[in-house]
Amino acid sequence: MTTETTTDATITTPVEREIHIERIFDAPRERVWAAYSRIEQLVQWWSGGNGFDVERWEFRKGGHYRFVETSDGETHGFEGRFREITPQERIVQTFEWDGMPGHVAVDAASFIDLGDGRTKVVTVSQYHTEEERDGMLRSGMETGLNRSYRALDALLSRSA
Amino acid sequence: MTTETTTDATITTPVEREIHIERIFDAPRERVWAAYSRIEQLVQWWSGGNGFDVERWEFRKGGHYRFVETSDGETHGFEGRFREITPQERIVQTFEWDGMPGHVAVDAASFIDLGDGRTKVVTVSQYHTEEERDGMLRSGMETGLNRSYRALDALLSRSA
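Predict the joint structure of the above. Result:
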């Protein structure tokens, strides 16, 4: 049996306290932007197939969001606030998991038009400390992230 | 006219991205702790005499708080979440001002019994970047902080 090559995200830590994530999507930038900025599209990929409740969604500078994900009978709350929204280009938001309240990362996602109908999303996550950053890397984040991105691939191909 | 010597807080920046604040209060630790942990006491000093609405107050690990202060016709929202609460000893919480949403500091306040009926409160605030830390220092924070601490002095002397 052969395994299809999957386009996993590239995850690196070139700078102290940061995680850099790069992933290319086979869709134009406006479609990828819509998948990140419209809640009815976000719910179709963010949790990668897990149960997903949206308790708050205020997509504007200063607005809050709060999601509750359910998997294997466990619930996990995630929340934060939007710092910057530049349409089609950039979303900066805080990110906090209920399991470690008060440990806040700042996630900056940039949407880069590759000019060939594809879009690269570069996300830089900054933590207050290196320990928090490394804890996130050890948490199984990579698996969950790639599952979410594959769900996003599927959404983008459906809406093509 | 002579000016009374006031016991201003000592504010230093010994570590990158941090602000350290020390202040001694003329009251036993349990009284100072009560002034920080009971909302009906906190409202009497936190805003230093400005209008003060409590929109949320969940004093437990993972709980949220949100205050709205009014002065000179302007309103300022402040919010965050409790990371750690060790009774009589330590409160760690995030702190975010509506005017710069998504810029989050972590404030760790330690309550030290000086053994002579006085209490030292040491607060260490950590920012994601040095720019955010320096912006806070330039914001007039010191004036507001000392006004709040003097209001706390007054509360502690009333409840003596």
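The mean pLDDT of chain A is 94.
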